[in-house]
Design brief:
This protein is about 40% helix and about 20% strand. It contains 12 helices and 10 strands. The protein starts with a helix and ends in a 10-residue tail after the last strand. This is Centromere protein N.
Length: about 350
């Protein structure tokens, strides 16, 4: 095992929480029964790392086995960094018939033609998601397994989720994805977050939605308290209406856990009392960011409790409606971003 693989293994063992290490190794399935019994998972991490290093040397395993271990851990624990969503556009007639074997062969072939050397490993998860691990190299260096890119794609859907991708690598990955899935183009979906499941559920509408109704049977108010019987009827009606509109805007039940939503303003400054700013030819620019551990839940609560006015402004309801959390606001209203955001490492 070369030095780079040793460093990858050491970093990976340090990265996996102690309480998850045994489960991850069992699922990986590369240790013999005797080697499993020799592992004492109550020992400190440094001792476990030395023990595993000795086993790997003894078994003569390669980088392939270590990257398998990393993928096993990352697939079960995907919330390790920032994920960015992309959408495939203009499918060809046979795009719906692309299956795993075809996708694997064509993706590896196309990406290998675009960049060399490159290390690609593809694995299908139990939820039908195809996971791709890419270690990028160039003409002067071997693939860097310490900084891999991870890609998740559900076949027969237009959505792709990517983490740890640089601006230099982005066009190469985009071209390989477009060709291997039989589409014409790919675009930024303007949706990102640290929880892969949340942005996936939001784009694929995998959460409980509430649709507008004309019938007088709104959703029941949760934890309703009425202090004055004389205005009980009016309070209940207002509370029910607020809750109904909040759930129509953001959904009901458990919502996808987005952490933020960003609004980039590019508008003319309008204030007759401030001619200096009003007469500027360049638009007024600023960025507004809403942040929370669960943004959609927070916004729904604000609307249903009366903290925020209802009906909910389209600037906020567009998050679940359009499956986005990045918007550019111009004098013409909300629209697609005028420039593609650079994906961060």
């Amino acid at each position: 095992m070369d030095d780079s693989m040793k460093r990858l293994l050491q970093r990976l063992i340090r990265r996996i929480p102690a309480q998850m290490l045994k489960t991850t190794l069992d699922k990986w399935g590369r240790l013999t029964a005797a080697q499993k019994r020799s592992m004492d998972f109550t020992e400190p991490k440094w001792a476990l790392t030395e023990k595993l290093m000795a086993i790997y040397e003894e078994n003569g395993w390669t980088g392939k086995h270590i990257t398998e271990l990393e993928m096993t851990y990352i697939i079960d624990n995907p919330n390790q960094g920032m994920w960015y969503a992309f959408q495939l556009m203009d499918p060809e007639d046979d795009a719906h018939s692309v299956e795993l074997t075809h996708f694997k062969e064509h993706f590896k072939s196309h990406l290998s033609e675009l960049v060399r050397p490159v290390s690609i490993k593809i694995k299908k998860h139990t939820d039908e998601a195809v996971w791709i691990r890419i270690a990028w190299g160039d003409s002067f260096s071997r693939p860097n397994h310490l900084k891999p890119t991870y890609v998740v794609h559900h076949l027969q859907t237009p959505y792709v989720f990517v983490t740890s991708l640089t601006s230099k690598q982005k066009p190469l990955l985009s071209q390989a994805l477009v060709l291997s899935t039989r589409h014409q183009a790919i675009k930024d979906a303007n949706l990102s977050g640290r929880k892969l499941g949340a942005i996936r559920d939001l784009l694929m509408r995998q959460y409980q939605q509430v649709f507008p109704t004309n019938y007088p049977s709104p959703l029941a108010e949760r934890n309703e308290t009425v202090s004055n019987p004389q205005i009980e009827k009016e309070q209940v009606k207002c509370a029910e209406n607020r809750l109904q509109m909040a759930c129509e805007a953001f959904g009901d039940g458990v919502l996808p856990q987005l952490q933020s939503s960003v609004y980039k303003l590019e508008t003319k400054f309008k204030d007759h009392s401030n001619k200096t700013m009003t007469e500027r030819e360049q638009p007024f620019r600023c960025v507004v960011k809403f942040a929370s551990t669960n943004l959609l839940e927070s916004l729904r609560h604000c609307a249903s409790s009366g903290i925020a006015s209802t009906p909910v402004t389209p600037l906020l309801s567009s998050i679940p409606l359009k499956g986005r959390n990045y918007f550019v606001i111009t004098d013409n209203g909300p629209g697609p971003s005028s420039q593609t955001r650079q994906t961060q490492n």
